[in-house]
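#structure-requests
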Amino acid sequence: MEEETKLAPKLELIRASQIDPKTVEWLWYPFIPYGKVTLVQGDPGDGKSTFMLTLAALLTRGAPLPFTEPKTPPEPLHVIYQTTEDDADDTIVPRFMKANGDRDRLIFINEKDMPISFDDVRIEEAIRTTGARLLILDPLSSYIGDCQINAANEVRPRFNHLIRIAKETNAAIVVVNHLNKMFGIKAIYRTPGSIDIVGAVRSALLIGRNKENEDERVMVQQKSNLAPTGNAIVFSVGEDGISFIRESELTADELLASFSEKSGRPDTKTQEAMEFIRDMLSDGEEHEASECEARLREAGISMSTAKKAKRMLGVVSSKPHYSWYWRLPEDED
Protein backbone atom coordinates (compact mmCIF):
# COMPACT_ATOMS: atom_id res chain seq x y z
CA MET A 1 0.00 0.00 0.00
CA GLU A 2 2.80 2.37 0.91
CA GLU A 3 4.63 1.53 -2.36
CA GLU A 4 1.49 2.25 -4.42
CA THR A 5 1.19 5.67 -2.74
CA LYS A 6 4.75 6.55 -3.72
CA LEU A 7 4.13 5.62 -7.37
CA ALA A 8 0.87 7.51 -7.68
CA PRO A 9 1.16 10.75 -9.70
CA LYS A 10 0.87 13.99 -7.81
CA LEU A 11 -2.36 15.88 -8.42
CA GLU A 12 -1.81 19.27 -10.05
CA LEU A 13 -4.72 21.57 -10.92
CA ILE A 14 -4.54 24.43 -13.40
CA ARG A 15 -7.17 27.15 -13.61
CA ALA A 16 -8.17 28.58 -16.97
CA SER A 17 -7.17 31.99 -15.61
CA GLN A 18 -3.57 30.77 -15.43
CA ILE A 19 -3.46 30.02 -19.16
CA ASP A 20 -2.51 32.74 -21.64
CA PRO A 21 -4.80 32.41 -24.70
CA LYS A 22 -3.12 32.51 -28.10
CA THR A 23 -4.28 32.42 -31.69
CA VAL A 24 -3.53 29.60 -34.09
CA GLU A 25 -0.77 30.38 -36.59
CA TRP A 26 -1.03 29.07 -40.14
CA LEU A 27 1.39 27.76 -42.70
CA TRP A 28 -1.50 27.67 -45.20
CA TYR A 29 -4.88 28.91 -44.00
CA PRO A 30 -7.20 27.04 -43.43
CA PHE A 31 -5.48 23.83 -44.51
CA ILE A 32 -2.18 23.44 -42.63
CA PRO A 33 -1.75 24.98 -39.16
CA TYR A 34 1.55 25.51 -37.39
CA GLY A 35 2.04 23.54 -34.19
CA LYS A 36 -0.40 20.83 -35.25
CA VAL A 37 -0.53 17.60 -37.28
CA THR A 38 -2.27 17.51 -40.67
CA LEU A 39 -3.25 14.44 -42.71
CA VAL A 40 -3.12 14.33 -46.54
CA GLN A 41 -4.87 11.32 -48.09
CA GLY A 42 -5.62 9.90 -51.52
CA ASP A 43 -5.49 6.81 -53.69
CA PRO A 44 -2.12 5.68 -55.07
CA GLY A 45 -1.10 7.63 -58.16
CA ASP A 46 -3.38 10.60 -57.55
CA GLY A 47 -0.54 13.04 -56.88
CA LYS A 48 -0.30 13.32 -53.08
CA SER A 49 3.49 13.24 -52.94
CA THR A 50 3.92 15.54 -55.94
CA PHE A 51 1.41 17.95 -54.37
CA MET A 52 3.36 18.09 -51.10
CA LEU A 53 6.70 18.46 -52.90
CA THR A 54 5.26 21.37 -54.86
CA LEU A 55 4.14 23.08 -51.66
CA ALA A 56 7.61 22.43 -50.22
CA ALA A 57 9.22 24.01 -53.29
CA LEU A 58 7.04 27.13 -52.95
CA LEU A 59 7.87 27.43 -49.26
CA THR A 60 11.63 27.05 -49.73
CA ARG A 61 11.79 29.88 -52.24
CA GLY A 62 9.44 32.17 -50.32
CA ALA A 63 6.62 32.05 -52.86
CA PRO A 64 2.94 32.45 -51.84
CA LEU A 65 0.97 29.23 -51.50
CA PRO A 66 -1.95 28.65 -53.92
CA PHE A 67 -4.84 31.12 -53.77
CA THR A 68 -3.37 33.17 -50.94
CA GLU A 69 -2.71 36.90 -50.83
CA PRO A 70 -0.16 37.50 -48.04
CA LYS A 71 0.15 41.06 -46.77
CA THR A 72 3.94 40.81 -46.85
CA PRO A 73 6.20 38.60 -49.00
CA PRO A 74 6.73 35.21 -47.28
CA GLU A 75 10.17 34.33 -45.94
CA PRO A 76 11.83 31.21 -47.45
CA LEU A 77 11.46 28.23 -45.11
CA HIS A 78 13.32 25.01 -44.43
CA VAL A 79 11.36 21.79 -45.02
CA ILE A 80 12.14 18.25 -43.83
CA TYR A 81 10.85 15.55 -46.18
CA GLN A 82 10.87 11.85 -45.25
CA THR A 83 9.58 9.16 -47.60
CA THR A 84 10.02 5.44 -48.11
CA GLU A 85 8.12 5.31 -51.40
CA ASP A 86 10.57 7.07 -53.73
CA ASP A 87 14.33 7.57 -53.83
CA ALA A 88 15.69 11.05 -53.26
CA ASP A 89 18.22 10.99 -56.12
CA ASP A 90 16.04 9.85 -59.03
CA THR A 91 12.55 10.99 -57.99
CA ILE A 92 12.20 13.36 -55.03
CA VAL A 93 14.97 15.84 -55.85
CA PRO A 94 14.21 15.92 -59.63
CA ARG A 95 10.52 16.61 -58.89
CA PHE A 96 11.50 19.27 -56.37
CA MET A 97 13.85 20.90 -58.88
CA LYS A 98 11.11 20.86 -61.53
CA ALA A 99 8.97 22.84 -59.08
CA ASN A 100 11.85 25.37 -58.73
CA GLY A 101 12.50 24.60 -55.07
CA ASP A 102 15.62 25.74 -53.21
CA ARG A 103 17.62 22.53 -52.72
CA ASP A 104 19.58 23.97 -49.80
CA ARG A 105 16.34 24.30 -47.86
CA LEU A 106 14.99 20.76 -48.47
CA ILE A 107 16.38 18.42 -45.82
CA PHE A 108 16.30 14.65 -45.30
CA ILE A 109 16.98 12.74 -42.07
CA ASN A 110 19.29 9.86 -42.94
CA GLU A 111 17.44 6.59 -42.30
CA LYS A 112 20.11 4.26 -43.64
CA ASP A 113 21.06 2.78 -40.28
CA MET A 114 17.69 3.06 -38.52
CA PRO A 115 14.23 3.93 -39.91
CA ILE A 116 12.35 6.92 -38.50
CA SER A 117 9.07 6.45 -36.59
CA PHE A 118 6.66 8.86 -34.89
CA ASP A 119 8.37 8.48 -31.51
CA ASP A 120 11.93 8.88 -32.81
CA VAL A 121 13.87 11.59 -30.95
CA ARG A 122 15.60 12.54 -34.22
CA ILE A 123 12.41 14.18 -35.51
CA GLU A 124 12.36 16.87 -32.84
CA GLU A 125 16.14 17.21 -32.94
CA ALA A 126 16.09 17.73 -36.73
CA ILE A 127 13.36 20.39 -36.51
CA ARG A 128 15.18 22.31 -33.80
CA THR A 129 18.60 21.99 -35.47
CA THR A 130 17.45 23.16 -38.92
CA GLY A 131 14.68 25.55 -37.87
CA ALA A 132 12.35 23.71 -40.29
CA ARG A 133 8.76 24.96 -40.25
CA LEU A 134 7.34 21.95 -42.10
CA LEU A 135 7.95 18.21 -41.67
CA ILE A 136 6.44 15.74 -44.17
CA LEU A 137 6.21 12.00 -43.41
CA ASP A 138 5.19 9.90 -46.45
CA PRO A 139 3.46 7.45 -46.01
CA LEU A 140 1.85 6.94 -42.60
CA SER A 141 2.24 3.13 -42.74
CA SER A 142 6.05 3.46 -42.88
CA TYR A 143 6.38 5.93 -40.01
CA ILE A 144 3.67 5.18 -37.45
CA GLY A 145 5.84 2.42 -35.98
CA ASP A 146 5.01 -0.94 -34.44
CA CYS A 147 1.30 -0.84 -33.63
CA GLN A 148 -2.03 -2.30 -34.66
CA ILE A 149 -3.31 0.38 -37.02
CA ASN A 150 -6.93 -0.68 -36.36
CA ALA A 151 -6.60 -0.22 -32.60
CA ALA A 152 -7.36 3.29 -31.34
CA ASN A 153 -5.57 2.61 -28.04
CA GLU A 154 -2.36 1.96 -29.99
CA VAL A 155 -2.75 4.54 -32.76
CA ARG A 156 -3.44 7.56 -30.52
CA PRO A 157 -0.31 7.18 -28.33
CA ARG A 158 1.77 7.06 -31.52
CA PHE A 159 0.18 10.25 -32.82
CA ASN A 160 0.60 11.88 -29.41
CA HIS A 161 4.38 11.89 -29.98
CA LEU A 162 3.95 13.93 -33.18
CA ILE A 163 1.31 16.16 -31.59
CA ARG A 164 3.72 17.01 -28.76
CA ILE A 165 6.63 17.69 -31.16
CA ALA A 166 4.47 19.93 -33.35
CA LYS A 167 3.25 21.90 -30.32
CA GLU A 168 6.66 22.33 -28.68
CA THR A 169 8.49 23.31 -31.90
CA ASN A 170 5.54 25.18 -33.49
CA ALA A 171 6.29 23.36 -36.74
CA ALA A 172 3.63 22.09 -39.12
CA ILE A 173 3.71 18.30 -39.47
CA VAL A 174 2.01 16.64 -42.45
CA VAL A 175 1.47 12.88 -42.66
CA VAL A 176 0.65 11.44 -46.09
CA ASN A 177 -1.66 8.42 -46.21
CA HIS A 178 -3.28 6.05 -48.71
CA LEU A 179 -7.05 5.50 -48.73
CA ASN A 180 -8.61 2.08 -48.27
CA LYS A 181 -10.65 0.40 -51.03
CA MET A 182 -14.07 0.78 -49.40
CA PHE A 183 -15.92 2.74 -52.08
CA GLY A 184 -19.39 4.21 -51.64
CA ILE A 185 -18.94 5.32 -48.00
CA LYS A 186 -18.37 8.70 -46.35
CA ALA A 187 -14.91 10.15 -46.93
CA ILE A 188 -13.93 10.03 -43.26
CA TYR A 189 -14.27 6.22 -43.28
CA ARG A 190 -11.91 5.78 -46.27
CA THR A 191 -8.94 6.17 -43.90
CA PRO A 192 -7.30 2.76 -43.35
CA GLY A 193 -7.27 1.52 -39.78
CA SER A 194 -8.69 3.25 -36.74
CA ILE A 195 -10.96 6.28 -37.10
CA ASP A 196 -8.67 7.77 -34.44
CA ILE A 197 -6.14 8.51 -37.21
CA VAL A 198 -8.44 11.24 -38.49
CA GLY A 199 -9.49 12.05 -34.94
CA ALA A 200 -5.92 12.78 -33.88
CA VAL A 201 -5.16 15.41 -36.53
CA ARG A 202 -6.56 18.95 -36.62
CA SER A 203 -6.89 19.13 -40.41
CA ALA A 204 -7.37 16.37 -42.99
CA LEU A 205 -7.00 16.94 -46.73
CA LEU A 206 -8.11 14.59 -49.50
CA ILE A 207 -6.73 14.43 -53.04
CA GLY A 208 -8.55 12.67 -55.88
CA ARG A 209 -9.12 12.75 -59.61
CA ASN A 210 -11.70 15.03 -61.16
CA LYS A 211 -14.31 12.74 -62.71
CA GLU A 212 -15.21 15.40 -65.27
CA ASN A 213 -11.59 15.80 -66.39
CA GLU A 214 -9.12 12.96 -65.83
CA ASP A 215 -6.19 15.35 -66.32
CA GLU A 216 -7.23 17.28 -63.22
CA ARG A 217 -6.95 16.51 -59.52
CA VAL A 218 -8.93 18.06 -56.67
CA MET A 219 -7.77 18.76 -53.12
CA VAL A 220 -10.65 19.03 -50.66
CA GLN A 221 -10.63 19.56 -46.91
CA GLN A 222 -12.04 16.47 -45.26
CA LYS A 223 -11.80 17.76 -41.70
CA SER A 224 -11.13 21.18 -40.17
CA ASN A 225 -11.06 21.67 -36.40
CA LEU A 226 -9.45 25.11 -36.22
CA ALA A 227 -11.10 27.14 -38.99
CA PRO A 228 -14.01 27.05 -41.44
CA THR A 229 -13.58 24.40 -44.12
CA GLY A 230 -11.61 25.77 -47.06
CA ASN A 231 -12.60 25.75 -50.71
CA ALA A 232 -11.50 22.79 -52.80
CA ILE A 233 -8.52 23.43 -55.09
CA VAL A 234 -8.35 22.04 -58.61
CA PHE A 235 -4.90 21.35 -60.07
CA SER A 236 -3.28 19.38 -62.86
CA VAL A 237 -0.22 17.12 -62.83
CA GLY A 238 1.88 17.07 -66.01
CA GLU A 239 5.39 16.70 -67.30
CA ASP A 240 6.22 20.17 -66.03
CA GLY A 241 4.85 19.47 -62.54
CA ILE A 242 1.72 20.85 -60.90
CA SER A 243 -0.40 23.74 -62.13
CA PHE A 244 -3.00 25.20 -59.78
CA ILE A 245 -6.14 26.00 -61.76
CA ARG A 246 -9.07 27.24 -59.67
CA GLU A 247 -11.04 26.96 -56.45
CA SER A 248 -14.17 24.82 -56.26
CA GLU A 249 -17.16 24.12 -53.99
CA LEU A 250 -16.67 20.35 -54.16
CA THR A 251 -16.70 18.46 -50.84
CA ALA A 252 -14.77 15.34 -49.82
CA ASP A 253 -17.88 13.15 -49.90
CA GLU A 254 -18.83 14.48 -53.35
CA LEU A 255 -15.34 13.87 -54.70
CA LEU A 256 -15.34 10.24 -53.60
CA ALA A 257 -19.01 9.66 -54.48
CA SER A 258 -18.30 10.66 -58.09
CA PHE A 259 -16.35 7.40 -58.49
CA SER A 260 -18.89 5.10 -56.88
CA GLU A 261 -22.12 6.29 -58.45
CA LYS A 262 -23.87 3.67 -60.54
CA SER A 263 -23.98 4.46 -64.21
CA GLY A 264 -27.29 4.77 -66.00
CA ARG A 265 -30.22 7.12 -66.22
CA PRO A 266 -30.62 9.53 -63.28
CA ASP A 267 -33.57 8.93 -60.93
CA THR A 268 -36.74 10.98 -61.32
CA LYS A 269 -35.89 13.49 -58.58
CA THR A 270 -32.46 14.10 -60.04
CA GLN A 271 -33.91 14.52 -63.55
CA GLU A 272 -36.40 17.08 -62.23
CA ALA A 273 -33.61 18.93 -60.45
CA MET A 274 -31.49 18.89 -63.62
CA GLU A 275 -34.36 20.37 -65.62
CA PHE A 276 -34.97 23.04 -62.97
CA ILE A 277 -31.29 24.06 -62.86
CA ARG A 278 -30.96 24.01 -66.64
CA ASP A 279 -33.99 26.29 -66.95
CA MET A 280 -32.78 28.57 -64.12
CA LEU A 281 -29.40 29.06 -65.83
CA SER A 282 -30.64 29.00 -69.41
CA ASP A 283 -29.83 32.67 -70.08
CA GLY A 284 -26.10 31.81 -70.11
CA GLU A 285 -25.35 34.38 -67.39
CA GLU A 286 -23.73 33.81 -64.00
CA HIS A 287 -26.18 33.50 -61.11
CA GLU A 288 -25.30 33.91 -57.43
CA ALA A 289 -25.14 30.47 -55.83
CA SER A 290 -27.05 31.48 -52.68
CA GLU A 291 -30.00 32.70 -54.78
CA CYS A 292 -29.96 29.50 -56.85
CA GLU A 293 -29.98 27.36 -53.70
CA ALA A 294 -32.87 29.39 -52.27
CA ARG A 295 -34.92 28.84 -55.44
CA LEU A 296 -34.16 25.13 -55.36
CA ARG A 297 -35.35 24.89 -51.75
CA GLU A 298 -38.52 26.80 -52.61
CA ALA A 299 -39.13 24.24 -55.35
CA GLY A 300 -38.86 21.43 -52.81
CA ILE A 301 -35.54 20.13 -54.15
CA SER A 302 -33.13 18.92 -51.48
CA MET A 303 -29.55 20.15 -51.49
CA SER A 304 -28.19 16.62 -51.88
CA THR A 305 -30.32 16.10 -55.00
CA ALA A 306 -29.41 19.56 -56.27
CA LYS A 307 -25.68 18.87 -55.85
CA LYS A 308 -25.98 15.60 -57.76
CA ALA A 309 -27.95 17.30 -60.56
CA LYS A 310 -25.49 20.19 -60.64
CA ARG A 311 -22.58 17.78 -60.96
CA MET A 312 -24.25 15.77 -63.73
CA LEU A 313 -24.99 18.96 -65.68
CA GLY A 314 -21.39 20.08 -65.28
CA VAL A 315 -22.46 23.40 -63.77
CA VAL A 316 -19.46 25.71 -63.50
CA SER A 317 -18.89 27.33 -60.09
CA SER A 318 -16.71 30.42 -59.82
CA LYS A 319 -15.86 32.98 -57.17
CA PRO A 320 -14.82 36.21 -58.94
CA HIS A 321 -15.16 38.32 -55.80
CA TYR A 322 -16.72 37.41 -52.45
CA SER A 323 -19.62 35.19 -53.55
CA TRP A 324 -19.93 31.95 -55.48
CA TYR A 325 -21.71 31.99 -58.87
CA TRP A 326 -23.16 29.24 -61.08
CA ARG A 327 -23.46 29.00 -64.82
CA LEU A 328 -23.99 26.25 -67.37
CA PRO A 329 -20.95 24.97 -69.26
CA GLU A 330 -20.50 26.49 -72.71
CA ASP A 331 -21.93 23.50 -74.55
CA GLU A 332 -25.09 23.76 -72.42
CA ASP A 333 -25.63 27.52 -72.94
